[in-house]
Each structure stands twice: as C-alpha cells, then as structure tokens.
C-alpha cells in the first residue's frame, strides 16, 4: 500500500496492515460506509448473528463459570509478570484465550469457505 | 419496468425475482482509477461507471437475491483497499446494490455535491482500527488483589472440586461485574486520551473482550506521529492492556458522516 510507510520498532503496539480474520473484516465493513436510499437489499443470511452485542454472551452462567475458573487457576505467589519476550512471541495469546475471548468465539459462524487463511497484502 | 421489481427485493418474502442488480463498492473522483483487478463480490469483474466527475466502483450481481458468502466480505474490502491504495475513496456500506447501471448514474448525478464534499473531507486521510484488549491473567490478578470478597470466595471455591456450585457462580458473577466496571473506566480513559491526541474517533462496540474498539481517522502525513503516540500509550498501559492497530484502511467508518451536510 502506497501510504503505509513505517519501519518503526514497535514493541508494545501490535500492527497489521489489513484484517486477517472474519471478525476483523466485519468490523471494517459491516454497517459502515455511505447509505443509498432505495437500494436493493442483498440478502445477508448468516451475517446477522455476527452483529449481536457480545455483551449478551458475557452475562451467562457459562461465562461466570469461566471467569471463576480463570480466577481460581491464578497463581498469586507469582508476582513476576510474563516477560516481554513471551508476549512478543505470542505467549500471551494462549494465556488470554480464556473467559474473555471465549465469548467472542461463539459469534463466529462456521460456514468456512477458506477465507480464514492469512493474507499477506502490503 | 424491471427496475421496480428489483427494488421490491426479497425482504417481503416473495419468490426471488430473476432481475440482476449492480453491486456498489464505493465512489472515487473521475480520472483517479483506470481499473480494479481484485475479484468482485459474487464473482464477475469490477467495472467503473463514470458520471459527473465521479466514478462508481461496481460489479454485476447475478440476481437481486444473492446469499453472502464469507469470501464476499473479504472481496468487498479487497476492492476498496485496491482503490484506496491509489486514490481517495468513499466506501459504500456492504450489501449496497442498485437495480441497474442507469440507477448508478442517477445516484452519482443526484448526490454529486455530497459525494464531492465527502471525497474532499476524506482526502489524504486513512483509517486505523484500534482494539485495546486485556491481558486476562493480569486483569484477574488485579481484581483478586483489590476485592476482598472475590479473594476470599476464590480461596473457598478453590478447595471445593465442584466447578458448578453456587460459590463458583457467585465468584464468576462478581468477577464479571468487576471486569465490566474496569472496561467502562478504561474505555472512557482511552477515548479521552485519543481526543487529547487530536484524532477523530468513531467508537465501535467493544464487545466482550476489549476495553476499547474504535476507528481513528488520521491524516496520512500525521501517521507516524499518531503511531508513536499510540506506541507510548501502549507502553504505559502494558502489561494490563494490549493495543492492536489495523491499517491504514479505507475510511469506512467515516464515510457516512463525511457526505452529510
């Protein structure tokens, strides 16, 4: 992309030029952009579920139990935070795939036509 | 006329009509694009329709009742990104279609003024999508440390093996409420921080996992300033919050506001 001129050493800010997952793509294009009156409405079967407020999911017994579990498995004797190296190498990714991320996964439909694969557009 | 049939669309529950339609991706200034080579939504080729110093980026739809596939979402964005890599683009909402090319021309003519204004306002601007999410373990640790009730419930429930008992549920509820409160506070703080950086923000729905989710409109020439300020902010909030920045993207979240008077 012509405008993307960067080469700064970014340590704390994670960067990606373009969305790679479905949720990110939806974030960028769904319900965003100019609206034209009286346009033909393309059927968007299967998309509606994605726009459900994820907050609904968080107030469920399932989520409460996941939170309880997340708190229970904490090792409070461990005062040292995960090292920067671990965070950079994606170590924190697995760690956070607990209660918070769990709610989001429910909203991703599985009509899989392979568009989940990573893109390397630049 | 066919056009009026097509306009009725499938929403009223009738059998799908055989009418075709024209899908609309966005609008650019005439002369700013020769061709778009990305794949079109619902297959076919991307075509440019010029009228009144403006060009609509379009493609043909096989019918006015097409079912969206996952890859069509990606293709819509691919086309916008390709246009955006070369010029200023006013993105249309995903799923926008008109009955015919004539309707596209009429749209460009009828709204020429607004569209030109929108293009002018977005010229030289890029969108960055910022998501600020929690390091869950860090957040849990903090919540346990500052809330005695949660801390003692945690101790009590750790002993019991039954993961679905009332204690666990109560603990989970308290933690969920604490997470919500934190999220609200953090979202406000981040939004204020961004305002102080003089960035135009369209706030999105942060959803379950994030403290903040929003689109930022940034002048391309200020991109490095904004990036280093966000980097500093991310460093300050580390390790509790994680900052993820997506872009530069076409200004989808700002297009509707840009064409308004």
Polypeptide structure, described:
The complex is a heterodimer of chains A (122) and B (261). With 122 residues, chain A is mainly alpha-helical. Chain A has a domain at 22-105. In chain A, 35% of the residues lie in helices and 5% in strands. The termini of chain A are close together. Chain B is α+β, with helices and mostly antiparallel strands and 261 residues long. Chain B folds into two domains: 2-123, no CATH class; 126-258. Chain B contains nine helices and nine strands. In chain B, strands 1, 2, 3, 4 and 5 form a five-stranded antiparallel beta sheet that branches. In chain B, strands 7-8-6-9 form a four-stranded antiparallel beta sheet. Chain B starts with a helix and ends with a helix. The interface between A and B is large, with 79 and 99 residues. β1 of chain A pairs parallel with β9 (241-249) of chain B, so a sheet runs across the interface.
Fraction in beta strands of chain B: 15-25%
Distance between the termini of chain B: 33 Å
Mean pLDDT of chain B, as a whole number? 88
Number of helices of chain A: 6
Low-confidence segments of chain B: 1-14
Strand content of chain A: under 5%
Q: Count all strands of chain A and give the number.
A: 2
């Amino acid at each position: 992309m012509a405008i993307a001129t960067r080469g700064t050493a970014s340590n704390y800010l994670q960067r990606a030029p373009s969305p790679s997952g479905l949720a990110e793509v939806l974030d960028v294009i769904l319900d965003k952009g100019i609206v034209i009156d009286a346009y033909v409405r393309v059927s968007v079967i299967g998309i509606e579920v994605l726009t459900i407020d994820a907050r609904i999911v968080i107030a469920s017994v399932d989520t409460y139990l996941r939170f309880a579990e997340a708190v229970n498995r904490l090792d409070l004797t461990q005062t040292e935070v995960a090292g920067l190296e671990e965070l950079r190498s994606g170590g924190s990714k697995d760690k956070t795939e607990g209660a918070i991320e769990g709610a989001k996964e429910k909203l991703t439909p599985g009509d899989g036509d392979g568009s989940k694969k990573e893109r390397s557009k630049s | 006329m066919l056009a009026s049939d097509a306009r009725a669309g499938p929403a009223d529950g009738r059998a799908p009509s055989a009418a075709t339609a024209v899908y609309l991706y966005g609008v650019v200034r005439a002369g700013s694009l020769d061709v778009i080579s990305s794949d079109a939504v619902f297959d076919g080729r991307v075509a440019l329709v010029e009228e009144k110093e403006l060009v609509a980026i379009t493609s043909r739809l096989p019918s006015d009742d097409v079912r969206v596939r996952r890859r069509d979402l990606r293709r819509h964005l691919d086309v916008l990104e390709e246009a955006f890599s070369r010029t200023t683009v006013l993105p249309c909402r995903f799923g926008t279609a008109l009955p015919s090319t004539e309707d596209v021309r009429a749209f460009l003519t009828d709204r020429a003024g607004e569209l030109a204004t929108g293009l002018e306002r977005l010229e030289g601007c890029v969108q960055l999508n910022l998501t600020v999410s929690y390091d869950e373990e860090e957040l849990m640790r903090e919540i346990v440390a500052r809330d005695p009730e949660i801390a003692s419930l945690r101790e009590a429930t750790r002993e019991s093996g039954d993961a679905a008992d009332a204690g666990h549920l109560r603990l989970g509820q308290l933690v969920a409420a604490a997470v919500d409160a934190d999220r609200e506070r953090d979202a406000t703080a981040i939004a204020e921080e961004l305002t102080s950086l003089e960035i135009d923000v369209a706030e999105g729905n942060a959803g379950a996992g994030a403290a903040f989710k929003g689109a930022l409109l940034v002048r391309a020439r200020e991109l490095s300033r904004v990036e280093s300020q966000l980097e500093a902010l991310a460093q300050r909030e580390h390790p509790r919050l994680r900052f993820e920045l997506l872009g530069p993207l076409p200004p989808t979240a700002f297009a509707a506001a840009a064409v308004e008077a």
